[in-house]
Amino acid sequence: SSPLQDIRNTVGNIPMEWYQDFPHIGYNLDGKKIYKPIRSKDELDMFLEKMENPDYWRTVQDKMTGADIKLTDEQVDLVRRLQRGQFGDVHFNPYEPAVDFFSHEVMIHPVTNRPADKRSFIPSLIEKEKVSKLVHAIKMGWIKPRKPRDDTPTYYDLWAHEDPNSILGRHKMHVPAPKMKLPGHEESYNPPPEYLLSEEEKLAWEQQDPAERKLSFVPQRFGCLRAVPAYPRFIHERFERCLDLYLCPRQRKMRVNVDPEDLIPKLPKPRDLQPFPTTLALIYRGHSSLVRCLSISPSGQWLVSGSDDGTVRFWEVCTARCMKTLPVGGVVKSIAWNPNPTICLVAICVEQSVLLVNPCLGDKLLYTATDQLLESYVAPEEERLQPVQWLVPSAEEQSRGIRLVIQHSKAVKQVTWHGKGDYLASVVSDNSNLQVLIHQSSKRWSQNPFRRSRGLVQAVLFHPTRPYFFVATQRCVRVYNLLKQELTKKLMTNCKWVSSMAIHPGGDNIICGSYDSKLAWFDLDLSTRPYQLLRHHKRALRSVAFHRHYPLFASASDDGTVIVCHGMVYNDLLQNPLLVPVKVLKGHAITLDLGVLDVLFHPTQPWVFSSGADGTVRLYT
Amino acid sequence: AQLTARFRTENRRYTVEDVPFSVPAASETTDLSHLINKLLAAGNVDHKYVEFDFLINGQFLRMPLVTHMEMENISTEEVVEIEYVEKYMAPQPEECIFHDDWISSVEATEEWILTGSYDQTVHIWSLEGKSIMTIAAHTEVVKDVAWVKQDSLSCLLLSASMDQTVLLWEWNVEKNKAKALHCCRGHAGSVDSIAVDCTRTKFCSGSWDKMLKIWSAVPTNEEDEMEAAANRPRKKQKTEQVGLTRTPLATLSGHTEAVSAVLWSDADEICSASWDHTIKLWDAETGNLKSTLSGNKVFNSITYSPLCRRLASGSTDRHIRLWDPRSKDGSLVLLSLTSHIGWVTSVKWSPTYEHQLISGSLDNIVKLWDTRSCKAPLYDLAAHEDKVLCVDWTEAGLLLSGGADNKLYCYRYPATASDVGA
């Protein structure tokens, strides 16, 4: 450790621990061993030196030589600066002012004077190769350029695949705890006196089992809220509530989610159900008062209408030409053209009589044959007792077309023909058993089919093919078998007052209109209750009608409209009739609170006639 | 915007140079008409202003040019071929002939007008509206009338009535006397329509009893035997009879509803329209059904034009439909003309113009149509105050319409202004 001799170790940058067990520490320039200096100092000497040597703190051991070196002041200073994280060089200034060499301002001169590289102005071969590779890949369809960006956000349902039995899943099936009963009067600090227990009640309360008590406490009265003491059972109560919540099993009530739209049956669209009448085509003008009733010839060429002005008018259907006017001297309540195409006869209800009129329209042979048929009547030898009188009108009336008069005892309100055209039934406004009468026109013979009255008869009807007879009273429709002479069925209409009735040409379905604006459709095969009850009209129904061929029926109402419905009856017994309202026909003006009084279909075309209180008959096609 | 258009016409007098012109896209018929007139005036000094009507692909231009082309899907990029014709003049009202009752039918010739009325009479009028003859023999409403033959001395005419007969009359013009020659019996319903064939020796009648019957129109002195009349006393029949009884040559049955209109579309082809929604074509010689065109509404009236060989039908809805009677598939409607708002009761093709027809309707209006403009009629003749029941169009250009207001209106249809001068 003498500074005079140049001791330089040549072992290089190796861990000096390797020489720990050797007496030397390396080799000098001459290849001689450098021996470790003798360290003979013990702990005491070391301590003494530490205490006594003032330079001890700046003495370090050179690892390469093992000698002790005393650091100079500059070296100590350097160590201190490095420890503080400063630069070793005292004169280096790390905070020299920065020169903003590149700035946002565009300079007029280039930063460097370096000439531009050649590669900067010739196309890059590598890039060209890459591009051609991409182009080839696009051509081959390996990569798709400009793939449409998926705009759907990339979040997902965190709980989509969750196990409902897991803890989180049960949170989803959370069942809210039942609400606690709200405090009542008895819980009040100042309850009304009737809630306070009397002495006996208090005694009974105390003797009751705590589980049986109606109240878990005794209502008490305090003068003011300040006087209410602390509630001693608070903890108990909370605990019991927790027990309730914890122990009481709760179940989720499954609520059925039904869209009300799904419950409505699917109906076909009206335009798929054509043909049906849609527009007003003709107006038959001429009557001066309300037109109560309509009927049409079986061929569909002539229309007859009866009115309150005391006339019956015959119209040509296709031109609305009034061909004939027959004054009958009274309000015409009902009118019916004979449905038999070989007979030309119209039955007209005027006051107390039914007139059988030959309109003398159509085929000349037919109406003369009808006259001959009526003339060929031979009176029986013995006079039979009849409920009505058959009168032959005067010659003047004969010339007007009236062929026979059936004189009733009371006013007649309805007349209807049997399909064969010989029998006709009339309804008299009476409340005895003489309300319904059946007449045979060829034999001039009437009979009274019912022994006793079953209520006010509203309408009667013959079955088109079978020997059934329908009698509508206020609430129900009775079906009688004319051959067996017995009641076969009683249909309950669910209406308050039946106004009219019509039968499907197939004979198995009946519709009834009522004054409480309902239309009941009965399927005679199904039940005695209505198959459907249609409430389309706003006011009382006056008349209902079926079409003879097309699946159509119509109802006329006091609200001035005719509603045409599609009523398909299937031959298949398993399929129920399909009823679809298809058209509301307006046009009649409401006069005297009456709208449309009668409705009638053309026998062959999908046309409907309506007669109204405004004195017109309208044809809709 | 501008469009390039090339103008062309059939009329030699009004040809312009066949070069494309640039016209404003929004120009209407009047603008185009002015343009053509300017061009014509440039070529010919003494040219007078003429109104034109314009057709693009056979459709009349009724709105601005560009709107029309948009609606018809015609490209506005290319040169448009526009055909122009002289504008048809509005029919001029001439006469209003008053009747006592509804007029059910009308047929006119060059000299006389024949009308059938609901008061059971047949009237003959001069073209000036003077009543010449009233024939009353029917016991019911007269539904149709027809001329058979016209001479200067005597005319033959037919009247069909609701009393189930057709009467063949001889009208002596000089003496002004009408004599019922034959009473054609056989129908069991109102006879709604009659039509005389082109040889003027036969006629066909259609009736409410669903039958068509062919009769001879030649007057004879013999009476046909009536086989169905056996159940009546001979004497009684004689007394109520007017003219000699005639029975049909043939009966064509096949319709399931009333026959509303008949016509001869050819020398031996009968065409009939019925309430059973069909038009049937019959061979008049053999009486066989040749083909059936079926619609879906009741037919009121049909008419046939030998010029364009089309049937036009009026039915119980708002439309006039055009049919090709030769089409095999039977139910093809070529075109429907829609503007009426009531039933179309009567249609009649023009005897001289290929594209024109008139129609009468329950909405009180008579419309003059050109098939090249199917959305709107050429002219509305709104004179009637009630339902129009019959229309006719004579070769001399007279339009007639009768209706439920008891009036028969006559219109002179000069077609084009140049025809008036010609």
Question: How would you portray this structure in words?
Answer:
The complex is a heterodimer of chains A (621) and B (422). Chain A has 621 residues and is an alpha+beta fold. Chain A is 14% helix and 29% strand. Among the domains of chain A are: 1-50, no CATH class; 270-375 and 399-620, YVTN repeat-like/Quinoprotein amine dehydrogenase (Methylamine Dehydrogenase, Chain H, 7 Propeller). In chain A, a hairpin with a 5-residue loop joins strand 19 (457-462) and strand 20. Chain A is elongated, with a radius of gyration of 58 Å. The model of chain A has no long low-confidence stretch (mean pLDDT 84). Chain B is mainly β and 422 residues long. Chain B has helices at residues 29-43, 65-71, 234-240, 417-421, and strands at 2-8, 21-24, 52-56, 59-60, 80-86, 92-98, 103-108, 112-117, 121-126, 131-136, 142-150, 154-161, 166-172, 177-184, 191-196, 202-207, 211-216, 244-246, 250-253, 259-266, 269-274, 278-283, 289-294, 299-305, 310-315, 319-323, 333-338, 344-349, 356-361, 366-370, 379-381, 388-393, 398-403, 407-412. In chain B, the strands form eight sheets. Chain B has a five-stranded mixed β-sheet with strand order 2-1-5-3-4. Chain B has a five-stranded mixed β-sheet with strand order 11-12-13-14-18, with no helix packed on it. The longest helix of chain B is centred in the N-terminal third of the chain and has 15 residues, at 29-43. Chain B starts with a strand and ends with a helix. The model of chain B is unreliable at 228-239 (pLDDT under 50). At the A-B interface, helix 8 of A face loops of B.
Radius of gyration of chain A, taken over Cα atoms and rounded to an integer in Å: 58 Å
**CATH class descriptor name of the domain at 270-375 and 399-620 in chain A:** Mainly Beta
Number of separate structural domains of chain B: 2
Strand content of chain B: over 45%
What oligomeric state best describes the polypeptide chains here?
Answer: heterodimer
Looking at the structure, the CATH topology of the largest domain in chain B is Methylamine Dehydrogenase, Chain H
Helix proportion range of chain B: under 10%
What's the architecture of the domain at 270-375 and 399-620 in chain A in CATH terms? 7 Propeller
Architecture of the largest domain in chain B in CATH?
A: 7 Propeller
